[in-house]
Design a protein that fits this description.
The structure holds 2 protein chains of 2 kinds. By secondary structure, chain A is α/β, with parallel strands linked by helices. In chain A, 32% of the residues lie in helices and 23% in strands. Helices cover 28% and strands 32% of the residues of chain B. The chains are: A alpha/beta, B alpha+beta.
Chain lengths: 231, 690
């Protein structure tokens, strides 16, 4: 079996100063609609799971069944790409280390999440290292919610990854080069990555990396079919 | 006989337990003048609702079997199959869905989309059943039909669209606003039989206009004419109905109605919706398998002039013998006709043909394509196909899950002994997920089924319907065994003690098979085992699979390859090679690292959110793996995979930990290896027993 980490989209951090997001911090993956944001985010989740971490996938829009099917479809692709022979064992292990928390019909609030995470830790001894949060509307959410997530990241000692929808027609960029909708929130995020589909291919670009200066060529090219890094 | 198939509807009423589907059916029968008084499900009047035809169901207030009934509404003939709400009886639901062309999905305005609704909805998707939704109990405290519509969209992925909005809610619920006619509808008279139209109350006008716009936008996706009419400002009710019908039949739209069946409000518009939006039998594609053409799939025509194809989808025992519920897919059936059972090739004569009205019946001279009727005095199994003999077609088999739980039963006296045998033979014919056998060693009768409740109900039915009182043992999990590595065998069976000798040598290897079944591969060369004895070798191995050597449960997933052997010109026989194969199995099996597999259930627990921690903890204590937790309003649904062995008595525990507010459903998911400690415990128990 090939090593997932060799094709992980987070290979983008290999040449960076800190190499990772780090516990207590927030990271965001930005992309326009239809580019493959959710697939890429789930590949980031797989990166964490293949490193042996425990992960909670927080969905603010899809029911667990749909999220599970995303994981299964992407995992099936991985089985082929990685020539996985022990598919059943790997899948069982990954399922064991992942829990989906879904908040349907505007049921989400930070206290509820805090309570759910506490239940996972106390009642079933599941202490996550990573939260992957899908479905937050960055354009509408406001700063408070991300400050709240930052608090949760520190309180529960975990890293939090978001996906954010950017728009072709909104071209606002702040003085640090961070585009809408993260242009007014970038101080809260330690990593900002942009997924971009161009005529020459699909690329992941590093826009912000902690307090370090980002090199202009900090990017990886992804396979457009599975959003895994090209070797 | 139904004259015009386009006015025929075969529908089911399917939902979560206690959403009021039996009450809704009762009201439908009242408004269609099939009954002349209404009763409650848990009726104080001792009569009970019409569709719950079994005493036990009446007592428990739940619907177990799919009683069929017939009614007429505004020129349409409607066959209604009432379906059970418990997941333990899903075979009943599966069977009903197979013969339905459409369904009313009943949801509770307070409880919303609950776990059982999700299971039933999944089954409806599998059978491609179009549905209309009815949000019931809008008069109850906490009723919120808008939340339920949201759940339909989000949790069940329906393109749910409101056809009505409520006038008041909870105690103030007094009627609905029809967004097609833009009229207020009130239900007057002692049982809501007088439907009165009125102007929309001014306080609700803005909301009605806005919801109608949503309806038009959704419906226009299915009709260019409607889209043009919207642009022209010339929308007619007919155009909206056509577009909604198109969307519903293609299962891309779910029209949502609301009311309170108990308070006699909102039922008649649902009947209108059945007639207007659900398909007739000819609008649904059904297929069969041609047994003469290697089970090639063939489309059924719904033409009454074509050769007959009909499916026996339910059997019922009555005082007068077996009643067989039949769906006719094509052709016609008349009294006195000869029918052929495709499975047995036996010919039977149609004696009495009846149309069912719950537990009452009416004799009819004939029935044709699309109709649901019942035959009297026909001996067959549930799921059998009948033709007129011109075709050798069978309806594709209904998915039947394997039983996962067993229970030893013993009759309390001689009378019960005889009656128990009668009851078991009847139940086996009625329900393919219910099995019965006599254990060869203990001589005990073992019944098997899909869950604790499933078996409990049959034990009670034995007592009530057949007068058979039985003692029950502790429920047993249906474990399986499987080998985990390849192992070679080489065994010679030799017997020379008086009379003819026995000789046979079998060599080869056994290995795990990923497909889960048994596979026998013959690689014998040079006739060292003569070809006439190869089936005996196969038979010998197969006989061992019924009872594994580890804990005595059936063996799954094994491939046997035989590549060598020896025979004797005089002493070799079929019997000798069967014994040689059994010897080879015994020689290799325990060294091939056999493992014990246990059934893992997909469990869904729904509770008020404050109990999430308790629910998770209870699952964790049961070796369960939590997959997800979904928050929806004040409710949380925890989904997990839990070994069946750990689920006995869970209903009681869950009730006590949640003040009776949590509930759960479970269905078989897969087999999985038991942990080492449990393997040892099971082995020890088996050793003590044998």
């Amino acid at each position: 079996m090939k090593d997932f980490l060799k094709v992980s989209p987070l290979k983008i951090l290999e040449g960076s100063t800190y190499k990772e997001l780090g516990k207590g911090n927030l990271g965001v993956l930005m992309a326009r609609a239809g580019v493959g944001k959710t697939s890429c985010l789930i590949n980031i989740a797989f990166d964490k799971l293949f490193r042996g971490g425990k992960l909670v996938h927080v969905s603010l829009k899809d029911a667990p069944e749909k999220v599970t099917s995303y994981y299964h479809v992407i995992f099936s692709d991985l089985v082929k790409v990685l020539n996985m022979e022990n598919e059943y064992e790997v899948r069982t292990l990954l399922d064991k280390n992942r829990i989906i928390l879904a908040y349907l019909k505007e049921s989400f609030d930070l206290n509820r999440l805090r309570k759910n995470l506490t239940n996972l830790i106390k009642e079933i001894d599941f202490t996550p290292d990573t939260l992957v949060v899908d479905g937050v509307d960055f354009a509408e959410a406001g700063r408070d919610i991300f400050e709240g997530f930052k608090g949760i990241a520190k309180e529960f000692n975990l890293e939090v990854w978001f996906s954010a929808l950017s728009h072709r027609h909104i071209t606002e960029v702040n003085e640090r080069g961070i585009p809408f909708p993260c242009n007014n929130l970038d101080d809260l995020f330690n990593l900002i990555i942009q997924l971009d589909s161009t005529q020459s291919g699909v690329f992941l670009k590093l826009l912000k990396e902690h307090d370090s200066e980002v090199l202009p060529d900090a990017m990886v090219r992804l396979e457009p079919n599975n959003f895994l890094a090209m070797e | 006989m139904v004259d015009d198939i386009q006015y025929l509807r075969n529908i089911g009423i399917s939902a979560h337990i206690d959403s009021g589907k039996t009450t809704l059916t009762e009201r439908i029968l009242y408004y269609t003048k099939r009954i002349f008084a209404v009763h409650e499900v848990k009726g104080k009047d001792g009569v009970g609702a019409k569709m719950d035809s079994m005493d036990l169901e009446k007592e428990r207030g739940i619907t177990i079997s799919s009683a069929a009934t017939y009614c007429e509404w505004k020129g349409h003939k409607i066959n209604i199959i009432d379906t059970p709400g418990h997941v333990d009886f899903t075979i009943e639901v599966e069977r009903s869905l197979k013969v339905l062309d459409g369904a009313i999905l009943v949801l509770c305005a307070v409880g919303g989309v609950q776990s059982q609704s999700i299971t039933v909805d999944r089954q409806m998707n599998r059978h491609k059943v179009p549905r209309v939704a009815f949000i019931n109990k809008c008069d109850r405290a906490g009723a919120d039909p808008y939340r339920v519509v949201g759940q339909l969209r989000q949790r069940l992925n329906h393109n749910a669209i409101l056809m009505q909005i409520p006038i008041g809610l909870e105690g103030d619920f007094s009627g609905v606003i029809d967004l097609v006619s833009m009229k207020a509808i009130y239900f007057e008279g002692p049982f809501g039989e007088d439907v009165k139209e009125g102007e929309i109350p001014s306080s609700l006008l803005d909301e009605a206009v806005s919801k109608r716009e949503e309806l038009l936008e959704a419906a226009s996706m299915f009709s260019d004419e409607l889209m043009e009419a919207i642009l022209d400002g010339s929308v007619s009710e007919e155009r909206i109905h056509e577009a909604v019908r198109e969307g519903t039949i293609s299962r891309q739209l779910t029209p949502v109605f609301m009311g309170s069946a108990y308070k006699n409000m909102g039922v008649q518009p649902v009947l209108d919706a059945v007639a207007n939006y659900l398909p007739s039998p000819e609008e649904v594609e059904n297929s069969a398998l041609d047994m003469d053409e290697e089970e090639k799939e063939v489309l059924l025509s719904s033409d009454p002039n074509d050769p007959l194809v009909a499916l026996a989808f339910k059997l019922e025992v009555t005082l007068y013998g077996q009643l067989t519920h039949l769906r006719i897919y094509q052709g016609t059936i008349g009294k006195g006709d000869d029918l052929v059972n495709t499975r047995t090739r036996k010919r039977i004569k149609v004696g009495r043909l009846v149309r069912m009205h719950a537990d009452e019946m009416k004799d009819i001279p004939g029935a044709r394509a699309g109709d649901i009727v019942a035959l009297f005095g026909v001996s067959c199994f549930s799921g059998d196909t009948f033709t007129d003999g011109r075709l050798n077609w069978t309806m594709s088999s209904i998915f039947v899950p394997d039983p996962v739980i067993s229970l030893a039963i013993s009759p309390k006296d001689n009378r019960s002994d005889t009656n128990m045998a009668k009851a078991l033979s009847r139940f086996i014919r009625e329900d393919p997920t219910f099995q019965s056998r006599v254990d060869g060693e203990s001589g005990q009768t073992i019944i098997s089924g899909m869950g604790e409740l499933h078996l409990e109900i049959y034990v009670e039915r034995m007592k009530r319907e057949f007068g058979a009182e039985v003692d029950t043992g502790i429920p047993q999990v249906a474990y399986r065994e499987a080998i985990s590595r390849r192992l070679e065998f080489d065994y010679t069976h030799k017997k020379q003690t008086g009379g003819a000798g026995q000789y046979g040598r079998v060599a080869g290897f056994m290995e795990p098979s990923e497909e889960g079944g048994y596979e026998f591969i013959n690689r014998v060369k040079g006739g060292v085992i003569p070809s006439e004895f190869i089936p005996a070798v196969d038979k010998g191995f197969q006989s061992c699979l019924r009872k594994g050597l580890l804990i005595g449960f059936p063996v799954l997933g094994m491939r046997i390859t035989v590549n060598d052997g020896r025979h004797h010109a005089v002493d070799s026989s079929e019997r000798a090679f069967i014994q040689a194969a059994i010897g080879a199995f015994k020689q290799a099996y325990l060294r091939a690292n056999p493992v014990i597999l246990e059934p893992i259930m997909k469990v869904s627990v729904e509770s008020p959110s404050e109990f999430q921690g308790n629910v998770m903890s209870s699952i964790n204590q049961r070796r369960g793996l939590i997959m997800s937790s979904a928050e929806d309003g004040v409710f949380t649904t925890v989904e997990a995979e839990v070994p069946l062995a750990e689920m006995f008595g869970y209903a009681t525990i869950l009730r006590s930990m949640s003040q009776g507010k949590a509930e759960f459903t479970m269905e078989f998911s897969r087999y999985s290896k038991v942990p080492e400690s449990i393997k040892e415990e099971l082995k020890l128990r088996y050793k003590e027993k044998s």
